[in-house]
């Protein structure tokens, strides 16, 4: 009750102020606490060699400065991904730069990697590692807007932050740093992945490396990204970031704002990409070698379930948490556990991947 009221109050604040308040309250531990221990092995899953207590994670962009790790994991998430973190601090784009579109269950943001830089994040992560809680912590890295050598930024951040990370993510898919998405081209992607791997190796702390891509890549771009990730030694894909497209059915007056769109309107788009990636990897005999973390429009156990059935090993959410408040993760986890029991499954690894009727799964949900 108190948390529903708090969420309702936060909705009265402008998007960025509500975001700051949410990070601070989690940092101070003012949040509902969940305990998923009673689910035991039901929702547990080993992905890229890491043991996740459940498959739901908090997506990058919420905890940009690694300030709220314990608070986020305390909400019930099995993992949290901090960042995007760049080598130097940077202010990001002029405000306002976050717009909530409640009637469309969506957000548009053009933050532009505002963050305190890797030194600050490193200190926060080191402090967390002194006294950690259960849960996996990913660290998402990017390049400074004014960098003279963007590829080198991935080396620098990987070298500095990998000692504190369970996994790292190279983010080459934010639409809010001009030119960044050009790094998704295979020749640059290869350089970025190798720079991050070299940074980790030089720091003596090699952890699984994930590649996060945009939902706006065409089929050729997607397949090229998958092949490059496989060839260069990535441990997983994150599909997908926000979209620069605008579906025609958006209704909120802010729909024309520039930036990346997230939430319900990217559910279908990211599912199509997830399904294509999962079936391609399956056909190539690589499904187990490049697990997929699926993100985009997860707002319920049903939407998370669709992504798991389409071939995701794990799922993440962000926008639904921003719009619905801190009780949401536990609702999703409880719902997933219930679904597992309904289907007679005792382990999430027993889900068939990828399902044959994937398009039907998506369609039935879109219509509902
Ligand atoms: C306000 C906001 C800021 C974001 N910042 C980042 C970021 O810094 N790095 C990143 O990789 N993704 C970022 N994202 C993208 C999310 O991690 C996620 O990929 C996307 O929002 C789709 O998931 P959702 O529909 O559950 O929000 C951001 C999303 C939002 C809404």
Reconstruct the topology from this structure.
Elements: H1 2-10, H2 15-27, E1 45-47, E2 50-52, E3 56-58, H3 69-74, E4 79-85, E5 98-101, E6 106-109, H4 117-130, E7 136-141, H5 150-161, E8 167-171, H6 186-203, E9 209-213, H7 219-232, E10 236-239, E11 260-263, H8 267-283, E12 292-295, H9 301-309, E13 314-317, H10 319-324, H11 328-342, H12 358-367
Parallel strand pairs: 3-4, 3-13, 4-7, 7-8, 8-9, 9-10, 10-12, 12-13
Antiparallel strand pairs: 1-2, 5-6, 6-11
Bound molecules: flavin mononucleotide.
The site of flavin mononucleotide has 27 residues, from β4, β6, β11 and α10.
Please characterize this protein's 3D structure.
This protein is an alpha/beta fold. It has a single domain, classed as TIM Barrel (Alpha-Beta Barrel), CATH 3.20.20.70. The chain contains 12 helices and 13 strands. The longest helix has 18 residues. The mean pLDDT is about 90. The structure holds flavin mononucleotide (FMN). Flavin mononucleotide binds next to strand 4, strand 6, strand 11 and helix 10.
Give the biggest sheet.
8 strands, parallel, barrel
* Quantity of strands, as a count: 13
How large is the share of residues in beta strands?
Answer: 15-25%
Question: Which structural category fits the helices and strands?
Answer: alpha/beta
**Which parts are unreliable, with pLDDT below 50 for 5 consecutive residues or more?**
none
What is the chain-wise order of helices and strands?
HHEEEHEEEHEHEHEHEEHEHEHHH
Order of strands across the main sheet: 3-4-7-8-9-10-12-13
The third-level CATH topology is TIM Barrel
Mean pLDDT: 90
What is the CATH C-level name?
Alpha Beta
The CATH homologous superfamily corresponds to Aldolase class I
Would you identify the CATH architecture?
Alpha-Beta Barrel
